[in-house]
Amino acid sequence: MSENDTNDTLLPEKQVKRLRALLNEAETNLAAAKELLYSMVGDDDLPTRTVEEVAGKVIEGVFDGQTMHDADGKAYPVPANYASKSKLVEGDILKLTIAEDGSFIYKQIGPVARRQLIGTLVQHDGAYYVEAGGKEFRVLLASVTFFKAHIGDQVSIIVPEDNREAEWAAVEAVL
Fold this sequence. Notes:
Layout: H1 3-41, E1 56-63, E2 67-70, E3 75-77, H2 80-85, E4 93-99, E5 104-110, E6 114-124, E7 127-132, E8 135-139, H3 141-146, E9 154-160, E10 170-174
Antiparallel strand pairs: 1-2, 1-4, 2-3, 4-5, 6-7, 6-9, 7-8, 9-10
């Protein structure tokens, strides 16, 4: 067996590994592009499909305020408009279907217990927060823009009932 034969047998394995990495990156980029498009034009201008209509890979995970993490710790971007409109909070269980065309379709399947707080919208370090209950909770820009909230507005937020360490909140309404 020559040195070239050894390199040829390893090449397909390296190529497969590289292709998998490229596909994972493409899926992430596609989801991010869709999130940006949704935030610009909204869901109403885009075709809608339900999870039941789509065949593909199904993954379950936990929402952390911005992304979903599966059992292996891999992060999947959750469209900000979906998280905002669905009022997702940290700890919610989501099901992600990755369709054969590469699109990501999320569905909330296990909401955690919630509690509501009222606080004041603030901004620093380029991010929005609501000061409530002696703590700052980060909120999604999509929620702030959807509700047309302004710095200093009183805001009703939703946080996990039993997670005192939560960093994120969902905006319920601007008061």
